[in-house]
Every structure is written in structure tokens, then in C-alpha cells.
């Protein structure tokens, strides 16, 4: 299923080089005014990266959002918010040579094994282009949560992105399976190229010895100044404790190389291919807004939206 | 909700010092003969640890399983398999002093914030005792999967447990949200004291530079000898590729100290408490069977059980 | 899956002649005092019927509830409420002759087709005995809803049971798929022997001509005195309008006959069998409490429990 | 949530007079060739009715489908199939007078109560226009099922529509909550203006006395010639028995009257309104294709699609 969330649920659709990518966001409260310019701005962060550089993709993505439903006179109706972004600048010819071979490090081989055929153009559904819908929905979630005092920020550290959630009240998360750390981990590991997740401040807090790990209580600590350290990353027993929630996501390096790749054919033989598609040299600077979006979608699904 | 899985779903119940812990496992195919002795043996692994030591808990847990439904003449009926394990050796008096204070590093404070009151005895629902149900259900999943050629093994490395899944065919996992790595991460991070998760071989593969990360294809490689390295941990684009699936889970140190703890009272004042309950000195050796159980439950939910 | 509900979810287990029937109720708010005597009383209504008669089953069911989890010092913990009722008075010998043949009007044949084997004793999982768990959970839901001013009542009419929900505020139900009438219909049609469902007052309101069907507004009508008639049964566009919700459930006649039945063998041949098991002559008087229970579970899942 | 189904799931979006209505269909197997002309033809049945008459709506609906994703070179990809149909012929001015009053028999009042505001144009989300997405998705489901030998047909009887499913194998449906009759009832009662549902042949079989109700076995009956009568409508214990599945859905009369209506204002006062929007005089002939679509979506969700 291409959905995430139970009471605040995003369903995404679209292949990289099909007509459009988009999504349906269900569970948004009625009567909310959405700042559409902010949403467009978040899409720009996704396209250009937080640290714009010549190394990000040269593919031009105008990414203009068409709102299909759920809004009336600028306010949410409580009905599903559906939207799409047309795919432009498609040059399928670029991908012709990939029709019958599987690139290393990509999803080509596994899609072929799972579905029996695939859209070879630019990764199809497995493309990072699918995250357009996540960023749009995440930007809506961010707006709703900001009115409840909850905000998200990120920092790039090597190949890790650290995310901090401020303002989350104590009591968010379920104690057994749907723990806050488990739900955040699930959402983060669903981002293309994510391989690692850790909660805690710092990232390797879990390796502290028993006499250092448990965060000592702040004497007369207030709701958001509860402990002297925050090794647990604001989560105790799977439930937020009111301190900042801190987690880290590790992403692998880009797998498309401009100098070409040795691909595998269906018969197991190998072949050298020099791709002409324009791909990311390094996509790490484009990931923070996606990390924040997935965090916002997760929190919006776990708390009561007012 | 205290359930995990969609088509193979475990629901657990029970507090540490209530009458019983147990579970309902739904979606098990009919007509299967279960090896009840193996299940009991897995419970012993949970109790004594894979490397028995005087440092594991002294609490005696007989852990005899009562099967309540779903079995007839030794075979599964296709109906829900319900089971319970009575809690024995309860000495509520041991926990009396914890009624009105919150231990550091525990779920006491967050439960109180979320629910307004709690069972203070031994952590109640937040206790590691809840994992009894996971191990039982996981042992059933392991048996079903073994007949399909899929097996699980674990190694303890520092405060990490590495798990390898052998025999998983290519094509398991969904490409967008329910990626195999995301689902495994979710299941692992739901284990008490889990804080970190990484997929890949070795654990920090995601930090490799672009020219080393993508696994080169094995020339004329077969289904399970597909690539020369396994940096992606057997998962490409969220879907298994037929290679061994390799992941790692990081667990924090024990948070209960025999020499006592400085607890927080509801009014924010601190108080020293010397707990008399018998707790784990180090629970790391008891976790491998739980990691394997959660991996088996995850895989059984994602593939077609035959 | 043997579960119903999303945020207030009941999972049931147990075969008629297995060790026990029971359930796990998830999503009950914390801190509620449950009237256990009322729950026991509802079980008596299920056993003896609202109009006790010699025609109801002679099988003695003590139906003593064992509470396994979710309660502490008489109050709910917010954790899953698990319970079981032991099966007593099992005489498997009574059912020996049914091992290899399928009774008309029962689930014997379809279970065999679906699962390949079955528990032939008393219907196994298909027995009306499974509704014990529904009545217990429904009695909990009723208590929670009563504190919010919502109550349930039923009347037997022929082979129909009419149910009225009083006090339901306007706005309950979702407009497209999870309409209040659709969710009530689903819950009612899941009761053993239910075949028909209609919303409206009277039951056949849907057959009224266009000039009579739509309920005219009450001039200056108040929230619960909204319309002059209630043909729509308190539901407009799938959403409650604040008027009493009125619906009807049709149940087929008992299918077990004391004088014996002509059964089908696996090879298609027929055979006469005189059952010795003690069954209902007419179970209609035992159904009202089940209808109310399923209505309460449905409403508790759709509204915000406080 | 605006979704139906678990493994074959339709999510719909769109208001009657917004930019578009559409849907996302998830769980469709890969590699299937879809007959797009058949789908378009089903949309025509929805627009014009099975018995075209001057009494159906005069609103012109071109209903051209835009396929947004999930198809590549004419075959399904296994990814979500997203589609939309633009709304044309919108004359919002027609509905201006309905902005501040609630029509009898419509969803105006309940939407206002639930969401605090609404799109007053043509019913917004509550409009029958939303069923466009159901018919498209249902037409896809029908095609998939036809290759497995399963087909759907309907007959209009008064204000009831009778539906027969042919070719459904024995064993479909779950025994406790997700019974085939409960799932069909849920799907049918989610259709706008549906108020009643009954399974069985004939519709009132549930009222037969005990000596007539249970269907006698056909001597040496084959899989689809199992019983002499079909009072149970092909469902025993919630599970299909291989006989034709027969059910009936009752729909109320149209609630929009060309001669005008007495509406309720927010302050409880009444006002006469003569609507200018073009509405159905009788929509019953347009409902059969929707009933079939919902039946096909239900069956496709319950069986293994090959």
C-alpha cells in the first residue's frame, strides 16, 4: 500500500516520467487556512537543496502544484486534499538503454523481480521524484502543528541528518508497538536511500555505560526542562517526555555515476552503460526538507489535531 | 493500538505484575503442526539469555504457556491463536515506594503524563515482560517461515545485535512506505530499550563514499549470490534482492541500578530510592531471541505464507 | 482478521469447545471505573434471552469472566483490556458423528472449503459462543458512552430486532465510505445469522415516494427535535443529525433441528444425522444484547471518547 | 478516511463543483492490460442509467478520464493507479441561495455540524458525483475478476437493486467480523441514498420458518450446484459456499424536488427555496453500475488476485 498514517494519512501516486506525481491527504481538520506560498517554498527546498550547489541535479522541475480537492475559498473542507504536480522535461530516450539491464545500487532488479516488468525511465516509482508529494503533505502538517506550538529543524552532519522537534508535549506515542521512536524510524527509513536511524542526543547515546546513560532529573525541572541531559532524545518508554525530540537519519551515497556503470542483464551477463539522464551528484542537501516532512506527518498522525 | 502486522497480526496484552501476559496471533494458515517444545525453548532463551550469566535477572519466570484457542488436535485451525503466561512470583510490596515517584530512564513519568495514572509494579505494561508474547508469536512465525526456507540468526556486538535473514526471496517489501528496511526498523525500534537501527553489511555502510557504496554485480551471479559485496544489506529500493538481509539494532544500557536511583516526585522535588525489585543487571543477552522474533513477525506479515 | 474497530478495537478468540473464548479490547481511555456487575448482567441477558423461555438453549454456561489485563485497582489503565471465559460442560462425544459430514445451513461446509479442516465440535469458531466476547466488550463501551449521554435500546419484532440510539450528537460518521449507516450495517451483519439491515423509522422508509420521504424540518426545532418525522433514521449523508438513530436487523431462523438433519458427506452423498448437542430452539431473544453491544462498539469507535 | 479496502484499496477525492473528482487504486497486480474503453462505457452507464429516461439528470457530464499513474505501455505497473475526471459545466451561481440554509433530506445540515463550514455547491463531497471514482475503480476490479471467472449482474426491482455474483469460489469471506455479507453490506450502505441491505434469495429469506430456511443439499451436488434452494444467498457462516451470491440494496427516493423545498436556516427558522441546479428526478437507473462496482471492489479485496 502506498499510504502512511492512520488518522492523518498520505497516499502518494506517480512515476518519475509518467504524467504526474501527487497525493491524497486525508484527515486534515476543516476550516484551516493553508499558506500555499509556504508549501511552494518547501518544494523549492526539495529541488535546490538547503545548501544549493552545482552538485545537485540539473533537471529542471517547475513543480507547480494543482490543487484538486479539499479546499474551498482558501480553507480546508475536512475532505481529502488531493494535489498533483505535472512531470515536465521528460526525455524517455535517455533511458532506452536501461530497458533491459539493471543498474547497481538501484531498484531496477528488485522491481523487475517483484512486478515482472517496470517503468525504466528514471526509476519510475522508485525515483526520488515521489518525495514531491511527501514534501507538499508535510508542509501542510507543519502548518497545522505550528499552530499547536510544534516545530521541526534539521542539520546536515556528514552523511547524517539530525532532526529536532520542539514543542511536542509529553504523552505522544504508544507504549508497545507504535512507540514514537518506532514510528519516526519507520517514516525516516521509508525515505529513498535512508539506511540508518538513531534516537538520542548525541546520536550514539545508546552506547553510553549504565552509569552515564539515564538522564538525571533536573531539580524542580519544568515540563520542557525536565532532565539535565537528553540522551534518550526526549522519548522514554516510547512516549515523548516533553523535552526536545532528537533523532538522526543516515543516507547512503548517490548510486548513479556520470562516468557510467556496470549493469546486469536478465541473463546474468554484465554490460557497461553510460547514463545520459541528469541525476544528483549528491542529494544530501535536498533531504532535510523531506526528513522534516516525514517527521511532521508522523507527529500529525499521533496527536490530536485541533 | 497494541497490535503489529496487517495480514499476520500480533496483539499483545498484560502488565508485568497483573494476572498474565499474552497475545492473540491472527492470520496463521490452517493445518500447520506447531512444535510447542521449540516455542517453550525460545521462551527459555528470553529468560536466561543466549550467554547465561549471573548478571541477568534473578526473577524466576516459569513461563508456562496456556493455549486458549486456534489449535485442534495439534494443528492450527486458521482461527486466532490465543495464549497466555501467568505472572508468578509477584511481590507488589517491593514496588510500593515507587507509587509516587518517577525513576530516571524509565517510562514512569511518560505513562503518568499520558494516562493520568499507572500500574507502578515493575513497569506495568512498559516492562520487558511484555516481550514474552512477542517471543511466542515469533517462534510460531519462525516455524512457518522455516518450511519456506527462511531462517534468522543473531550475534551480539557491543551494545548492538546484528541479525541476518537467510533464504528470503527477491521481491519482499513495498517500494514506497512499507519498505522492507522501514518495516524491519519499525519492528526493531518497538523493542524496549532499542534506540538505533541500521541496515547493511557492515553496519556503517551508509557512510561509504560513492565509488565504494553500490554493490557490484557478481558476474553470472545466481539468485542468492547476486553481488560481490552486500553493503545494501540485501535490500534495494526497499525490496529484498535475494541476498542475505543484514541489519543491526542498538540498545541502551540497563536503567535500573541496584545501588538506588534519584527519582522525581510529582511536585518536581527529587528523592533517593533504593529499589528492592529484582531487575536485569544487563539484559543484552536476552535480546537476540526478541530481535529474531520481531524479524520473523515482520517477514511473515510481508510474504505470502503457504 | 478477527478484529473490529480502528481506535476502539475488539479482537476476539476462541472456539466453542476449546479451552476458552475471550477478547482483547484496545483503545479504552485510562482512569475509568468499570461496573463489572453490569457486564456480568449483560452476559446473563445473552445466555437467558430478554424473554426467557424453555425454547432457548439448555446448555449451561456459567460465563464467569477472568480479567487478564488492563485494570489496576478497579480502574482502566489505558492498556489493552484482556479477558476470557472458560468453556464448560464440553461433551465432544456429542459431535463425533459430525466429524465427516456437513450440516445444512451451518458453516461446516464453508469452513472445510476455506481451511481444509475444522473443529467440528459445536461449530468451533463459527458458534454463537464467540459473541460472549462481543457482549463483554460492548458492555464496557456502553458504560463509557452512557457517561457521554448515549444509550441503546432494542425491541424484538418478528424476526427483526429494532435498535434505537439516543443521545448521539450530530456529526458522527464519515461522509463517503465510513458512513454511520454503513458502519452500523457492517457491525450488525457480522452477528451470526444476521441477513438483513435497514436504517430508518419505520424499517421500510426507503420505499416511501419522493413527496413523503424527506423529513420536513421542525419549525424552530432544537438539536434533538430537528425534524417532524425520522424516516432517515437520524442519519443524513452518512452522518448523524442529532435525532434518535433507528435501525433494524433481520435474523434467519435457527438451523439446527432436534429431529435431525440431512447432511452432506465430502463425497457428495447425503446422510441423516440426529444431533445430540443441545442447541437453541430459537435464539432470537438472546440477540438484543448482542445488537446493542455491536452498536455500542461501533459508536465508541467513531466518536471521541472522553 | 476516504478509503475502502485493505489489500485492494480505493481512495477517492473531489467535490462536485471543485476542479475534479478522482481516485487512487492501490493493490492492483502488475502486468495487467486494462480495457480502457470498457471503463469509459461503465461511466456512461453511470451517467445515463441502465434504462435511459428523461427523468435522469440533465447535467452534462463528459467524464473523460485522465490517467495519472500506474500504467506503462498499456499495462499496470503494480504501483498506484491514479486518475481524475474534471468537473465541467459548473455554475456555482445556481447554488448561491443554498449557502446559508439546509435542504431537507440532504447532507447540508450534518456537514455543517461536523465540519463547521461546507462547499454548498451541488452537495460538495456528499454529491453523487463522487461515485465517478467508484465506477472507474470498480470497472478495473471487474476486469481482473472476470479473468478469474467472476462476474456481476444487477436487476432493478422497485426501489431495490438485486445483485448476483457468479463464479465466486467457496471460501471467500472471514468467519467473524469480515464476513462476506458484512463486507458487502458495508460497501453497499456506503452508496449515497442506500438505506437497506439483505442477503438471500429471495430478499426476505430471513423471514422463512425454521423448517423452510436451511437450504437442503443437492444430492451429489457439484461445487456450484450445491443446494436445492439458495435462501442463504450463497453465504454460510459469513463465507461463500460456491453458489451464486445474491443480495439486495434498498435506496430512498430522490430528495431534491424541482418545485422547491422548505429549508432550515442556521437560526432554526424555515425558508422556501426553489433550486435551479439540475438534479436527478430519479437516480435509481444510474445505481446498478455503482452497486456492481462496489461489489467488485469488495470481492477483489477479499480474494487473492492472480
Summarize the SSE layout with pairings.
The structure is a homotetramer of 306-residue chains.
Chain A (H helix, E strand, L loop, with lengths): L2 E2 L4 E5 L6 E7 L9 H13 L16 E5 L1 E2 L2 E2 L4 E6 L14 E2 L5 H8 L15 H16 L4 E7 L2 E7 L13 H10 L4 E6 L17 E6 L2 E3 L7 E2 L2 E2 L4 E7 L9 E5 L4 E4 L14 H15 L4
Antiparallel strand pairs in A: 1-2, 2-3, 3-7, 4-7, 5-6, 8-17, 9-10, 10-16, 11-16, 12-13, 14-15, 17-18
Oligomer: homotetramer
**C-alpha geometry of chain A:** globular
Strand order of the largest sheet of chain A: 1-2-3-7-4
CATH topology of the domain at 1-150 and 289-306 in chain A: Chorismate synthase, AroC fold
CATH class of the domain at 1-150 and 289-306 in chain A: Alpha Beta
Main sheet specs of chain A: 5 strands, antiparallel
Mean pLDDT, all residues of chain A: 92
**Any idea what the CATH architecture of the domain at 1-150 and 289-306 in chain A is?**
4-Layer Sandwich
Distance between the termini of chain A: 28 Å
Largest interface: A-B, 92 and 92 residues
How many distinct beta strands of chain A? 18
What would you give as the CATH superfamily of the domain at 1-150 and 289-306 in chain A? Chorismate synthase AroC
What string gives the helices and strands of chain A in order? EEEHEEEEEHHEEHEEEEEEEEH
Q: Structural class of the secondary elements of chain A?
A: alpha+beta
Question: How much of the polypeptide of chain A forms β-strand, as a percent range?
Answer: 25-35%
- Rg over CA atoms of chain A: 21 Å
Q: Percent helix among the residues of chain A?
A: 10-25%
Contiguous runs where pLDDT drops below 50 for at least 5 residues of chain A: none
Count the helices of chain A. How many? Answer: 5
Amino acid at each position: 500500500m502506498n499510504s502512511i498514517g492512520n488518522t492523518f494519512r498520505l497516499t502518494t501516486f506517480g512515476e518519475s516520467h509518467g504524467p504526474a506525481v501527487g497525493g491524497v491527504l486525508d484527515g486534515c481538520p476543516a476550516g484551516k487556512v493553508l499558506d500555499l506560498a509556504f508549501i511552494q517554498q518547501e518544494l523549492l527546498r526539495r529541488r535546490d537543496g538547503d545548501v544549493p550547489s552545482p552538485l545537485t541535479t540539473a533537471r529542471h522541475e517547475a513543480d507547480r502544484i494543482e490543487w484538486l480537492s479539499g479546499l474551498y475559498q482558501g480553507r480546508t473542507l475536512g475532505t481529502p486534499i488531493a494535489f498533483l504536480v505535472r512531470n515536465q522535461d521528460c526525455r524517455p530516450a535517455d533511458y532506452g538503454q536501461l530497458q533491459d539491464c539493471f543498474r547497481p545500487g538501484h531498484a531496477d532488479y528488485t522491481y523487475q523481480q517483484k512486478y515482472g516488468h517496470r517503468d525504466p525511465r528514471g526509476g519510475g516509482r522508485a525515483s526520488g521524484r515521489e518525495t514531491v508529494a511527501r514534501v507538499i503533505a508535510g508542509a501542510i502538517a507543519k502548518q497545522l502543528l505550528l499552530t499547536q506550538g510544534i516545530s521541526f529543524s534539521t542539520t546536515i552532519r556528514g552523511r547524517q541528518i539530525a532532526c529536532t522537534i520542539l514543542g511536542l508535549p509529553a504523552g505522544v506515542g504508544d507504549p508497545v508497538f507504535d512507540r514514537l521512536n518506532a514510528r519516526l524510524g519507520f517514516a525516516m527509513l521509508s525515505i529513498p536511500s535512508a539506511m540508518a536511524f538513531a534516537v538520542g542526543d548525541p546520536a550514539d547515546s545508546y552506547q553510553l555505560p549504565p552509569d552515564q546513560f539515564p538522564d538525571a532529573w533536573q531539580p524542580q525541572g519544568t515540563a520542557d526542562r525536565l532532565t539535565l541531559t537528553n540522551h534518550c532524545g526526549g522519548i522514554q518508554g516510547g512516549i515523548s517526555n516533553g523535552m526536545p525530540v532528537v533523532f538522526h537519519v543516515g543516507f547512503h551515497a548517490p548510486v548513479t555515476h556520470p562516468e557510467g556503470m556496470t549493469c546486469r542483464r536478465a541473463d546474468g551477463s554484465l554490460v557497461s552503460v553510460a547514463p545520459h539522464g541528469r541525476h544528483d551528484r549528491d542529494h544530501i542537501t535536498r533531504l532535510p526538507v523531506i526528513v522534516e516532512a516525514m517527521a511532521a506527518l508522523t507527529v500529525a498522525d499521533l496527536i490530536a489535531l485541533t
